[in-house]
Model the fold of this input.
Amino acid sequence: MKLAIALVILVALSLVFHFISPWWLTPIASNWGSIDDTIEITFWITGAVFVAVNLFLAYVVFRYRFQKNRRAHYEPENKKLEVWLTVITATGVCLMLAPGLVVWAKFVNPPTDAAELEVVAQQWQWGFRFPGEDQTLGKSDVRFISVTNPLGIDPKDPFAQDDIIIDNNELHLPINQAVKVWIRSKDVLHNFAVPQFRVKMDAVPGLVSSLWFTPEKIGRFDILCMELCGIAHHTMRGFVVVDSETDFQQWLSQQPTFASTQGGPVGDAVAGESLYALCSSCHGPRGEGNQALNAPRISGQSPHYLKRQLVYYKAGIRGRHPEDTYGQQMAAMAETLPDETAINDVVAYIQTLSSSTPAATLTGHRDKGQPLFVSCAACHGAQGQGRFSTSAPRLAGLQDWYLKRQLVNYQTGLRGAHAADNFGKQMTLMANMLSDEESMNNLLAYIQSL
Amino acid sequence: MSLNFFRTLQEKPWLQPDAVLPERVMDRSDINPKKLPLIVFLGIVSVFFFLFLITFLARSQYPDFQALAGETWQPFYHPQQLWINTGLLLIACVALQVALMATRRQNIHTAQIALCLALLFTLQFGAAQLLLWRHLYKLGFYMASNPANSYFYLLTALHGLHLIGGLFVLVPVILRSFGFFRPATTAPQQRPLQPPRQQQLQYSLELCALYWHYLFVIWLLIFFFNASSPAVYKTLAALCGY
Amino acid sequence: MPHVAIADQTSELHDPRSFITKYIWSQDHKVIAIQYALTAIGVGLIALVLSAMMRLQLGFPDTFDFITPNAYLQFVTMHGMIMVVYLLTALLLGGFGNYLIPLMIGARDMVFPYLNMLSYWTYLLSVLILLASFFVPGGPTGAGWTLYPPQAILPGTPGVDAGIVLMLVSLAVFIIAFTMGGLNYVTTVLQARTHGMTLMRMPLSLWGIFTATVLGLLAFPALLVSAIMMALDKLIGTSFFMPAIVSLGEQLDYTGGSPILFQHLFWFFGHPEVYIVALPAFGMVSDVLAVHARKNIFGYRMMVWAIVIIGFLSFIVWAHHMYVSGMNPVFGYFFATTTLIIAVPTAIKVYNWVLTLWRGNIHLTVPMLFAIGFIFTFTHGGLTGLFLGNVVVDLPLSDTYFVVAHFHMVMGVSPIMVLFAAIYHWFPLVTGKRLHDGLGKLHFWITFLGTYAIYLPMHYLGFLGVPRRYFALGSTDFIPESAQTLNASITVSAIVVGLAQLIFIFNLIWTLRKAKPCSPNPWGAASLEWQTPNVPPRHGNWGQKLPTVYRWAYDYSVPGITSDFIPQNISEDAVIRDAETSGDVDDHSDKGSHT
Done:
């Protein structure tokens, strides 16, 4: 009796939950409304079966519950009934399968006027490539991948020279233009997924997969990696911005071509020396940093990171939060660097500096920090040496008070929360794993020992 | 067999209680009780090798795959060594078959000689395989340098393991044929159920012979796959839909 | 020397006397079954704790320091692998298969008892190797239970050194153990059935276990093959699955391999594995339903056919796990079609379970509660499978929490419902005592309602697009804050359900120590395992003479017969009809076992 009631209530609750649930498919932003339709069809058919079978079950449990003088009916089988049920089930299955296959056929055959572009996944970032003016993507191979050629494009292929390279997690697309996306991976399996577009596909090293869609809504959407790709899988976020045609063209024209990224500017350390004079007042003549002035050590820091931070400070991506007082100071300083050449020069000069490892200022348990650092090491390296490929700065030899402030800033949104900070979100997700000050100190004690 | 199975599936078991009372399979003296498990086991091993060979075919269609035959400078362009090894294993199989037939005719001495020959040639085969490995290794065909090499070493090693497993059965059987391991005293109530020594030997030999013939077939497959040219792989892979 | 089969001996060949031969190095299928079951449940409890830790992180992110992204992935991986392989497969086949096969077919033991014993000890070894990976540098692998290369053996994933190697070795050892056991089950079912036990007179439990064993024997080699090749890729540097790769900025020596090839092999094992778990559960639940509804299983033949057809089809649907894997999308048509076809025999099984209850006389005992709970959860889980099997519907839903909810419903909750039904049902046979009813009901209600509270909302996280295997969601532009509330409520339910299992364990211990023995066939079951001369059955099961079987296992409430069930070993002459003087149940079974 109780069971029969419970079954009825569960069916009813499931239905209520479904109809009042605010959690349902995210509003669609692409042409794949037909996929949503197949989901609806499947939902109604399976929902009807679910309700029918379980209400009948509840009825049976109630109606034929144990009674002392009842005897169960004897019926080994009932061919007619079984055949009917089979036929009805088969019909229901066909009703779901047929539209599914029709839509799949649409997915398998992209329209001929679709524009092409390429997505390159790696642990734990996204890169993109547009074919450029010749409308043809140049050849690529993993073997060509290097610091200056992150997407592994064949430098000798004439079609590759005008390809447009985007290596910062943010992709722009024009609205209402079908795109066929070629998907590659440099290292492990990834999956290119934008929930609002409905379609997704794995990025597999060693082959090129593809999918297509037409963005139909202007906006900024998350790209999520949906195939487990290692420790920082959940931080592998990219962004796709759907623009009007003119905005898109404007954006595209600002992006570098492959040819322009080759043999690009290397900073001039001599020119950088004079620029560094201002920096040295806080960061010290040898880049050793100064706790009293809240300036971290910068000698020995990875150049790619220094450059990105200076660009961020200048562009207001870092150091603009009203509560980030130290960041604001630095932002003002970065303003004094007139252009990219100046940034390159000063970074080149900083590379020539060397200073001693600073002493610890915090107390924590190194041994308790070690297991925490395993997750950091995935990007920053086992020795905290920093890694160009994961866009991760050097941690070893940085002052612990500075690292702590940055971790807190990430957690509280003073750093990394700016919409254009395509790398900071990763660090915010990671910094959040430290639940209290003690574990932060332990972690920093371990980093101090590297 | 399969037809019978489908007929069985159509029985209506609730009708005619009592009607059929089949005998227990294990009570039948004409059935070698270990034959079915061996066949099932060989079936599993077949799936195992089959899957390796399927992946072999798939892998052979990638550009970095360098077949071991097909070009004059490849080690299996003239696979004499493979043919010699095949011959050794074939002799071992034939010897086992002879031993089985001799046992059926109660000719225990012939069986003993044939069994020893089978063991000898099996060991010869194993040794020849090891020499082949050394030969290839000296030529610079290392396991990790190319997928074709990887498959060659892997498949021959697994075949070797399979063969060693067989020896664990064959050697005791041979010893028993010479009279070792005969139980000193058997409990009286068991005696009638123990099959006579000759029949027990025959049963064991049936299993060994089946096992060795199977080993031989697997070896032929491995031979074929490792000594074919890229064109053959291409055709086969196309047939499999790659 | 080949071991001597004792199933065909009239007297017991080995008569274990010491504690060690009786309970440790035992060759008795019943003892081995219990060893298997206890080991599986033990390791399953570890996996349960792991899942609780995952849920704590998801429900209350950034609260627990010991759960780092690294550790989280290790928990995910070990939880999945342990539950699927080391708990469910081992418990259903090693535990219930071992216990029930000889008793249900009327044999004294497995055909190869020594091999059976080896099978258990090899299984235990595989469990120990698996657990050892928690204590090696780098910890266990965190590549997900699917162990996909390249990440499973490349830096950036937890446990890529000792962890993954131990996992692969442990799986290989497990497969050896399973093969030894499986050969035994197949041979025993085919060759050691007693007089009159035709295939179609076997209870559905046996059909389920037998078919699942055949599936296992054919499917596990695929896992072994992929494990061997991946181990070589890791240890020797071959390139079976490894293409040219730049890992964390470093060019590796691999060339040309195919990660998708591994996925094909893995799912060629992995999909049948679902049915290796499901089919024994289907079988056992059929028997529980029939006994407690006092009615024959409805459409027995259809049920057998469905089991066989599902078993066959399970080998040609594997790539529905790979719709978005980058394989040739044309395969999608084929695999979507086969996958949806498999829904038909599965649906028939559900109908027949419900129709078995229809016009029955339903005793709502604890096993029956769990069995009916199974019908509900399995219907739910099976229907959501239709979303994921239909290739285009899978596009938005794959790799989201919808998948997690679906497979937990269909191969987590449902088989576990059956496992509990089976444990409560056969416990009196194994120990001679009935588990406490009140505690059992409490256990049922919390488990049944609790698991539904976990998994129903989880589907909706999947509709939203929340990805699985994420340590934390962070901020996105499409997932509302309220999803976190949902996650927290799921975690609370999960913890409650997890703790409710303590009731079950307490019930086991209390019953074994304090409860009084019950009658030998407390449910009035007709199948052969309840008709042994002693309950619990002794070594050799059948006393002096093997039973003879005269009928199928489902003669319940046969018209014109006094008793509401006729045991399988009662001949037509011995059946007491309504016109005659009525006799009681015990009288029947006594007569039966001595005919």
